[in-house]
Amino acid sequence: MRMSWETKTSVGNEIELDFAFHGEPNDLFRSKIIQYLHSIQDRMPFLTQVALKIETGNSFPHSSGIASSAASMSALALCLCSLEDELFQTLQEDDSFERKASYLARLASGSACRSIYGKAALWGQYAPVSGSSDDYAIPMEDQFHETFKTYHDDILLVSAEEKKVSSRAGHALMDEHPFASARYEQANKNMAAMLAALKSGDTERFGQILELEAWTLHSLMMSSADPFSLILPNTLTILEKVKQYRADTGHPLYFTLDAGPNVHLLYPDSIFIEVTQFVEDQLLPHCADGQYIQDEVGEGPEEV
User: Fold this and answer.
1) What is the pTM of this model?
2) Interstrand relation of 152-156 and 263-267 (parallel, antiparallel or unpaired)
3) What is each CA distance from 25 to 63, 80, 117, in whole angstroms?
4) What per-residue confidence (pLDDT) applies to 64?
5) What does residue 295 show for φ and ψ, rounded to 5 degrees?
6) Which of 10, 117, 120, 269 has the CB geometry, 3.0–4.6 Å to 150, for a possible disulfide?
């Protein structure tokens, strides 16, 4: 994302924004960003005094359930904090800058607050983790075993189409869900077990919890008052092949599912070559146009 600005020539409380997505105007995205900027005016009152220009784009399909909102809104929050610091020098300390960026990102998209940091981050108040908060994420790199700092995340694009149900609508299903209280209890237990696995380097326990959480997410959507499924037939085929591959080889290759039909494969760097061969030989035929994205734990956003 690239943001530039100039002082407004007009007086008023309107947000002035010139917006382009992949070089083209996009009224839908522009209106969403303007709505968001209005919502944070009390935290950044200078926004009505500048004319903003934003140019952005994705290297992967947007709105398909693989965190395009987390990427875009964390980038926007970082740009806004850079602008505030440039104008007023109020965010000179890295901790202050990152915390405010994470806070602002959360107001746009919950998962975006974690994307401010490299390696890994935790969002949500969790008593055993000092400094954790519902308002912003905190970095967790120092709580991870070295094995997980070079982990891979290959995304198999079963469908690149926009998902039919937004993440916000999906979350709302838990408000009246009959299994809500049991789910919250399960989530807390899984959090404790996951943090222990990440710290000790236990790839097997990590993967078990990972897959359990994926199945739970989608089973809750399918058992809600207004049930629906985001899983497609090719999704299930891939999951079965991954389980069989793990049984045959003993390699710690595990899957998770985001809010969509696409499959994330998580595994340590030590088996990168073997997993790549498996994906290309057996899984790509089940992906839309044979598409998949090879990714890994990153160093975090960079200012350019």
Assistant:
1) 0.90
2) antiparallel
3) 17, 21, 29
4) 52
5) -140, 175
6) 269
